[in-house]
Structure to design on (231 residues):
């Protein structure tokens, strides 16, 4: 069996731990088999990394999935909703503090996530796809990283930043569309200038438009959509 296939099968055992968790705080999107393979390869071959002096690094996608799994388990064990857990994180608490404040503990959360991973790994060992030694190693790495994340005081800031980024991604298309209508500039020109570092305010103002009018138009669009949705 090739090394690449062994890597895929070893990592595949952990999919059950992360699959439901991926919906937390991350935009819903279709994940190709190649993308799944890449994430699992990271878990198999590299340490998960926190420092990003040069931007996103290998292991970051797997870490996001693990954070999601920990938030889900904290929610289940504490009786809080996932959003309530996230809100407390954003307010400055660690996941361990959230768990302790609501009748459970960091150890219990890590144990629950680890138990799910172990079930999947045991199946792979039984099928002869990975050795027991390798399964134990993967489980140990997951437990160590999960414990670190439960006590990571920066998670709340990271979650808030990601939520802000997601909100901007939802709003920006409407703002760009209304900016184009207000200024007569092509949408492609606006998006290109945004990529080059200009703000939407600068682009609209330089073309003689009113950024407040653009905001009002986009707001009205979202309000109309919301009113139609509740009906």
């Amino acid at each position: 069996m090739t090394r690449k296939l062994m890597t895929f099968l070893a990592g595949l055992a952990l999919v059950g731990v992360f699959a439901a968790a991926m919906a937390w705080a991350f935009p819903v999107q279709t994940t190709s088999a190649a993308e799944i393979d890449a994430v699992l390869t990271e878990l198999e071959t590299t340490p998960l990394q926190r420092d990003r002096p040069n931007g996103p690094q290998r292991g970051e996608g797997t870490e996001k999935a693990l954070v999601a799994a920990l938030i889900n388990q904290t929610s289940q064990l504490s009786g809080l909703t996932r959003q309530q857990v996230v809100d407390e994180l954003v307010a400055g608490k660690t996941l361990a503090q959230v768990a302790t404040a609501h009748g459970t503990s960091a150890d219990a959360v890590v144990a629950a996530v680890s138990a799910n991973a172990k079930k999947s790994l045991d199946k792979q060992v039984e099928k002869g796809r990975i050795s027991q030694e390798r399964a134990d190693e993967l489980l140990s790495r997951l437990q160590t990283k999960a414990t670190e994340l439960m006590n990571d005081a920066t998670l709340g800031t990271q979650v808030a930043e990601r939520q802000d980024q997601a909100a901007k991604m939802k709003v920006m298309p409407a703002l760009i569309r209304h900016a184009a209508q207000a200024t007569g500039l092509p949408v492609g020109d606006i998006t290109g200038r945004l990529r080059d570092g200009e703000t939407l305010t600068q682009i609209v103002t330089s073309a003689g438009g009113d950024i407040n009018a653009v905001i009002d138009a986009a707001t009205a669009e979202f309000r109309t959509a919301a009113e139609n949705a509740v009906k």
User: Anything to note?
Assistant: Confidence is low (pLDDT under 50) at residues 1-59. The two ends are 57 Å apart (CA to CA). The CA atoms of residues 90 and 159 lie 7 Å apart.
